[in-house]
Amino acid sequence: MPVAERSRPDGGAAAGRPHGARRPRAPFGVMLAASVALLGLAVLASLAIGSRAVPFDVVWSAFTAPVDGDTDQLVVRELRLPRAIIGVLAGAAFGAVASVLQGATRNPLADPGLLGLNAGASLAVVAAITFLGVSTPLGFIWFAFAGAAAAAAVVFAIGSVGGGATPARLALTGAAVMAATTPLITLVLIRDLATLNQYRFWSVGSLAGRGLETAAALWPFLVAGLLLAAWLAPRLNLMALGEDVARGLGVRLGMTRLVTAVAVIVLAGTATSLAGPIALLGLAVAHAAGALAGGDYRRRIALAAVLGATVLVTADVIGRVVASPAELEAGIVAAVVGAPVLIALVRRRGGAAT
Questions:
Q1: Which contacts of 287-293 are long-range, i.e. CB under 8 A and separated by 24 or more positions?
Q2: Which long-range contacts (CB under 8 A, 24 or more apart) does 62-68 make?
Q3: pLDDT tens-place string over residues 34-72
Q4: pTM of the predicted model, to two decimals?
Q5: Between vectors from CA 123 to CA 307 and to CA 267, what angle results, nearest 5°?
Q6: According to DSSP H, which parts of 240-296 are helical?
Q7: Which helix (H) or strand (E) holds 128?
């Protein structure tokens, strides 16, 4: 190869970009509109696809020209619409909370599941079922909030001791919280069959069995959490430059950390109450949003919320298809998607996320 060709800054590529430069991204508005369109298609598929296939014209008429006694229309309105709405709400919460956590901790592995928040929420829900007789998602939410808050406090308190909250320390502390809570949950479940019967369906991560009243009761918490995340986004952009720089630019770090904690607890508690402790979903969509939207957390959080809703609803549809006429829970399908993302992150960073 001639010397002149070897010395080109792009390493021989036809394009004239400098070495290491990223390809230009599509405008954010286009990406967001495309994501919303994909979400709409996922919701439509959720209404039409299942063990009982419903034609799209019947789906449309179920809302525009309802007919009393029509079985297909009843399936769409009474069974599939609630789980699609719950999938949208829970998926948006999982995506947004993972993006907030990654920005606030500057930890690429930050996720409610990996940091032990889901485990804390699960333990609190098990205790509520066993000792207080709570049996509805609306009842679960307060205990999920309390459990997530307690787990978050433990993880960040222990992870911040001696050298600061590095990614590896937070991940290890989250794993320790999960390791500590899992035997306690198991101990309660093996002693109480009634609790096991309620918990096992909730814990695997499913959108079935929840009615519209659940979504109606919990959507205000999601909105509150998203508003807090929107308030945090520009501050997370400044904190990415370093805490000293952020403080010099007027960011009140104490207030920002407090609002971050509240936003994480509200979003993680809402998502877990709606769909159960689904692991790795938020991690996958937060990194996808970062790759598409860049470093601006105003864009990343918005895109992660839409992508999270899309992925969870799609996972629910896939679970109906691959195990038909039975169903594979959405949490299992989402974990299959999220696990390769986690492995790829570890390999890319050489396992040294410190």
A1: 287/108, 287/341, 287/345, 289/95, 289/99, 290/99, 290/102, 292/25, 292/31, 293/25, 293/28, 293/31
A2: none
A3: 999 999 999 999 999 987 888 888 999 989 888 887 888
A4: 0.83
A5: 30
A6: 243-248, 253-275, 281-293
A7: helix 117-132
What pLDDT shows up at residue 156?
78
Tokens of 229: 């995340």
Distance of alpha carbon 45 from alpha carbon 61, whole angstroms: 15
Tokens of 202: 């909730």
What is the sign of the dihedral through the CA atoms of 331, 332, 335 and 336?
Answer: negative
- In this structure, what are the phi and psi dihedrals at residue 339, rounded to the nearest 5 degrees? -60, -45
Q: What is the DSSP string of 8-54?
A: -TTTT-SS-PPTTPPPPPPPHHHHHHHHHHHHHHHHHHHHH-SSS--
b or e along 28-49 (b: 16 or more beta carbons within 10 Å of the residue's beta carbon)? beebbeebeebbeebbbbbbbb
Sequence-distant (6+) residues with CB within 8 A of 32 are 299, 302, 303, 306
- CA proximity to 203, closest of 346, 315, 330: 330
Secondary structure element (H or E) that encloses residue 132, with its range: helix 117-132
**HSE-CB for 329 with a 13 A CA cutoff:** 18
Handedness of CA 246, 250, 256, 259 (dihedral sign): negative
Q: Tokens 């032990």 — which residue?
A: 116
